[in-house]
C-alpha cells in the first residue's frame, strides 16, 4: 500500500463521463424519443393513406353511378354485343375519365368462374381525352390476377362493398390505387363492377416532403438522445464525485487533514489483511492538551493539534499512514521494525521540542507508544492495545518519552539515537 506523506483530504479530480452510462442513457433516450417521433408519424401516414383510399373509393362510386346498369347487363352476354351498344355503354365513363386527368384506367368487369373479365374500357374509345398512352383491354378479355391474390376481393365486391387495394400498385406509367365498386341494373341486380386505377403521383410528392420531415425529426431525436445521454453521464459523474468527496470528508479530520478514526482503521485493517512482513504502530499523545485548553482556550489547543500533526507528517516515510484519534495521533508504518519506529518517534519529539509553539504561547510535549509485529499475522486490535499500553508506560515515567512494546523501553528526547531503559 502506498500512502502519501501528506494525508490532507485529497481533491477529487473531475472524472470523465462513464462511456457505459453515456451509452445506456443515450440508448434509452433514443428509444423513447424515436418512439415519440416515429409512432405519430406512422399513424399520420396511415391516416393520410386511409384518406386517399377513401377518396379513390369515392371516385369509384361516382364511376359506378354513371354506368347504365341495364346496358351493362346486356353486354354481359357476348351474344348481345355490338359496337353501338358498347359505345353507348362506355360513353358516360369516357366523359368522366376525360374530366379527371388523375385516372389511369377506367373500366368495368364481370366475374366468370372466379376470374375477372373486362367488359368496358375507356381506353378503347376514340373519344377519350387523355395524354396518357394507354393500352385498351378487349371485350371479355380475362384479367390476369397477381399470383397469391385470391378471389376474396371479388366476393367482397359481389356482396355490395367498395374494394380499394390496400397497397400501391405500379406499372410503366406510375404508381396508383385501384377502386372496385359494384354495378346494379334498374332492378337492383348485381351486374359486374367498375374499376378505377387512380394516379397517386401528387400523393407521393407530398409524402416525399413528409418523409424528409420524418428523417429530419428522427435525426433531431437521435441528437437530442445523445445530448440527454451526455447530460445524464455528466450528472452521474458529478454524483459519483460528490459521493467520493463525502466519503473522503467522512474519513478525514477537518482540523488537521489527517485520517479520522474511521478512516485510519479502515485503511489499516485493509492493509493488514493483505500485508506480508513486519509493521509498526505508533500512538502519539499530547501530554498536557487539557491544561492548554483550560489555560489558553481551544483555539490554542487546536493550534497545538495542528502543529503536532505537521511535525508527524514531516517525519513520515513514503507509504506511512497517519490519523487522528481525538487527542491522540496514530501512525501505521508498514515494513518498519522497532528500531525504525523508535527513530521516527524520536524525530517527532525532537522536532516539537526544538520549535515549540510560540504563536500559541503554549509549552507542550508528546509521548509515544510503539508496537511492532514481525510476522504475517498482524492484527490491528492487538497492535493498538500494545501501543496503548506502551504509551501509558511512557507517560507514567514522566511523559515526553517513547514507550516500546513488548520490551517496555523508554528514552528521553535528545539529538541522535534515543537512549532506552527497560520498564520491566
Give structural notes.
The N terminus and C terminus are likely disordered. The strands form three sheets. Strands 1, 2, 3, 4, 5 and 6 form a six-stranded antiparallel sheet that branches. Strands 8-9-7-10-11 form a five-stranded mixed sheet, sandwiched between helices. It starts with 18 loop residues before the first helix and ends with a strand. It is α+β, with helices and mostly antiparallel strands. 48% of the residues lie in helices and 19% in strands. The chain is built from ten helices and 13 strands.
Topology, please?
Blueprint: H1 19-66, H2 69-75, H3 83-99, E1 103-112, E2 115-121, H4 152-158, E3 163-164, E4 169-171, E5 174-184, E6 190-199, H5 201-250, H6 261-274, E7 279-286, H7 289-296, H8 298-314, E8 321-325, E9 328-334, H9 338-355, E10 366-373, H10 380-396, E11 402-405, E12 409-410, E13 421-422
Number of helices: 10
Q: Give the termini separation.
A: 35 Å
Low-confidence stretches: 1-9, 407-424
**Strand residue percentage:** 15-25%
Estimate the mean pLDDT confidence.
84
The helical percent reads: 40-55%
Order of helices and strands: HHHEEHEEEEHHEHHEEHEHEEE
Shape: rod-shaped
Taking all Cα atoms into account, the compactness measure Rg is: 49 Å
Helix/strand class: alpha+beta
Beta-strand segment tally: 13
The main β sheet shows up as: 6 strands, antiparallel
Amino acid at each position: 500500500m502506498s500512502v502519501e506523506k501528506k494525508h490532507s483530504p485529497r481533491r477529487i479530480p473531475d472524472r470523465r463521463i462513464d462511456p457505459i452510462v453515456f451509452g445506456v442513457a443515450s440508448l434509452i433516450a433514443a428509444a423513447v424519443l424515436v418512439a415519440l417521433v416515429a409512432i405519430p408519424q406512422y399513424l399520420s401516414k396511415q391516416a393520410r393513406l386511409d384518406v386517399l383510399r377513401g377518396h379513390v373509393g369515392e371516385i369509384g362510386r361516382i364511376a359506378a353511378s354513371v354506368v347504365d346498369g341495364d346496358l351493362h347487363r346486356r353486354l354481359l352476354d357476348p351474344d348481345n354485343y355490338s359496337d353501338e351498344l358498347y359505345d353507348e355503354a362506355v360513353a358516360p365513363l369516357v366523359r368522366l375519365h376525360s374530366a379527371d386527368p388523375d385516372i389511369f384506367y377506367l373500366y368495368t368487369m364481370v366475374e366468370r368462374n372466379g376470374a375477372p373479365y373486362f367488359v368496358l374500357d375507356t381506353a378503347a374509345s376514340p373519344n377519350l381525352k387523355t395524354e396518357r398512352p394507354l393500352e385498351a383491354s378487349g371485350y371479355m378479355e380475362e384479367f390476369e390476377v397477381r399470383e397469391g391474390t385470391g378471389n376474396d376481393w371479388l366476393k367482397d365486391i359481389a356482396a355490395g362493398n367498395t374494394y380499394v387495394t390496400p397497397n400501391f400498385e405500379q406499372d410503366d406509367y406510375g404508381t396508383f390505387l385501384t377502386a372496385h365498386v359494384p354495378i346494379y341494373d334498374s332492378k337492383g341486380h348485381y351486374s359486374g363492377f367498375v374499376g378505377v386505377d387512380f394516379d397517386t403521383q401528387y400523393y407521393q410528392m407530398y409524402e416525399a416532403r413528409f418523409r424528409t420531415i420524418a428523417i429530419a425529426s428522427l435525426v433531431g431525436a437521435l441528437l437530442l438522445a445523445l445530448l440527454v445521454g451526455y447530460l445524464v453521464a455528466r450528472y452521474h459523474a458529478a454524483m459519483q464525485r460528490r459521493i467520493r468527496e463525502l466519503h473522503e470528508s467522512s474519513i478525514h479530520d477537518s482540523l488537521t487533514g489527517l485520517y479520522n478514526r474511521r478512516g485510519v482503521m479502515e485503511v489499516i485493517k485493509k492493509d493488514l489483511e493483505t500485508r506480508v512482513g513486519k509493521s509498526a504502530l505508533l500512538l502519539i499523545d499530547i501530554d498536557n492538551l487539557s491544561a492548554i485548553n483550560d489555560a489558553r482556550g481551544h483555539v490554542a489547543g487546536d493550534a497545538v493539534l495542528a502543529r503536532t500533526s505537521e511535525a508527524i507528517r514531516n517525519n513520515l516515510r513514503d507509504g506511512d499512514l497517519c490519523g487522528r484519534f481525538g487527542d491522540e495521533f496514530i501512525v501505521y508504518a508498514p515494513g518498519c521494525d522497532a528500531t525504525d519506529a523508535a527513530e521516527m518517534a524520536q524525530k517527532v519529539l525532537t522536532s516539537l521540542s526544538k520549535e515549540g509553539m510560540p504563536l500559541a504561547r503554549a509549552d507542550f510535549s508528546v509521548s509515544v507508544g510503539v508496537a511492532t509485529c514481525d510476522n504475517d499475522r498482524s492484527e490491528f486490535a492487538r497492535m493498538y492495545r500494545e501501543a496503548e499500553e506502551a504509551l501509558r508506560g511512557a507517560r507514567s515515567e514522566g511523559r515526553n518519552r517513547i514507550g516500546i512494546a513488548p520490551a517496555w523501553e523508554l528514552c528521553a528526547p535528545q539529538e541522535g539515537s534515543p537512549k532506552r531503559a527497560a520498564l520491566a
